[in-house]
């Protein structure tokens, strides 16, 4: 039973909403429980997942939908079990807003909440009681406090917003797969997630970090982000030049039409390739050769744990990691959806109220 409260947001009513047809209207948030907070949303980053979901690209979306899962807001109401926040606190909410958190859940008790079978995503998902989750292209939001995070004072809201999904989705696999001193790391796809890949691989102390992009168009930007260089996969013979160079590659590629075999070929023996990008189409057939010949691992990764989110925010505050953002009034969201779909983000659009 959703509550009878009404929040206002930019609502997608069908798959055509992705073409800039979100409607500013009201929606009914989940019922308010003792474990929840309400927030006044000040900022929301725009993730490619918002586009996939609006257009039903990953399978049928349940409309009406309010997307947006890189949310920063101010706590305006809290349930009586919520002790970690005060009214007026600035918090962030990412792409996951609930998991079971039970003592007998292996995933929840091992810093692996994204893989809990009872996880709830921040939009287009439902809570245990059937209430639908609604995201951050809105003026207000209601979420379980256990998946909201205090934002360090040193991080401005528009810088912190895209870290809540784009940042953590690359921070987690970088951290879990050993990015750091002595390692050479490659990041495939320099978009929202990819630019965080470069920033965090550097912040974690990796020796060398390279952007693996389709062309060299983003070269000046990736150098400014701290990368050693850019590898253009449109240039013939690129993979031969980079054979056995990488300990770890994190791929944010958002299209299945990618040279996966070549990416694997540039791993060192024992190297790891982690895919986080979620194209709508299946990847083309893959020969096992590179995996077998290099004792390589092909992995996937979803978001990051709650402790990793806290750690990422603290590291960003301490090291001055700055998201590259382009901020627009949320009222202009329909225009910005088109810009994002055209690949114009440098490197994350953030909406502000
Ligand atoms: P962006 O659109 O900002 O960036 C995607 C990048 O992919 C582009 O900038 C481009 O980089 C690269 N790319 C596009 N087409 C191709 C291609 N044919 N071959 C290789 N690379 C390509 O998207 P986001 O960073 O916001 O999201 C990336 C993906 O990650 C999406 O699929 C999103 O849904 C998914 N995602 C996954 C999460 C998870 O938990 N696993 C969480 C959040 C998002 P370049 O121009 O440099 O080649
Ligand atoms: Zn996202």
Task: Give the SSE map.
Layout: E1 7-11, E2 23-27, E3 36-45, H1 48-54, E4 71-78, E5 90-93, E6 96-98, E7 120-121, E8 140-144, E9 148-150, H2 157-160, H3 166-176, E10 184-188, H4 192-203, E11 208-213, H5 219-224, E12 229-232, H6 238-241, E13 246-251, H7 260-265, E14 267-275, H8 289-293, E15 297-300, H9 306-319, E16 325-329, H10 333-341, E17 348-352
Parallel strand pairs: 10-11, 10-13, 11-12, 13-14, 14-15, 16-17
Antiparallel strand pairs: 1-2, 3-4, 3-8, 3-17, 4-5, 5-9, 6-7
Helix pairs in contact: 3-4
Compute the CA-based radius of gyration: 20 Å
Percent helix range: 10-25%
Q: What share of the residues does DSSP label as strand, in percent?
A: 25-35%
Largest sheet: 7 strands, mixed
Indicate the CATH class of the largest domain: Alpha Beta
Q: Assign the structural class, choosing from mainly alpha, mainly beta, alpha/beta, alpha+beta, or little secondary structure.
A: alpha/beta
Q: What fold name stands as the CATH topology of the largest domain?
A: Quinone Oxidoreductase, Chain A, domain 1
Overall body shape: globular
CATH architecture of the largest domain: Alpha-Beta Complex
Ligands, ions, cofactors: NADPH dihydro-nicotinamide-adenine-dinucleotide phosphate, zinc ion
Order of helices and strands, N to C?
EEEHEEEEEEHHEHEHEHEHEHEHEHE
Q: CATH homologous superfamily of the largest domain? A: Medium-chain alcohol dehydrogenases, catalytic domain
Mean pLDDT: 97
User: In angstroms, what separates the terminal alpha carbons?
Assistant: 29 Å
Q: Which regions are unreliable across 5 or more consecutive residues at pLDDT < 50?
A: none
Total number of domains: 2
Number of strands: 17
Helix count?
Answer: 10
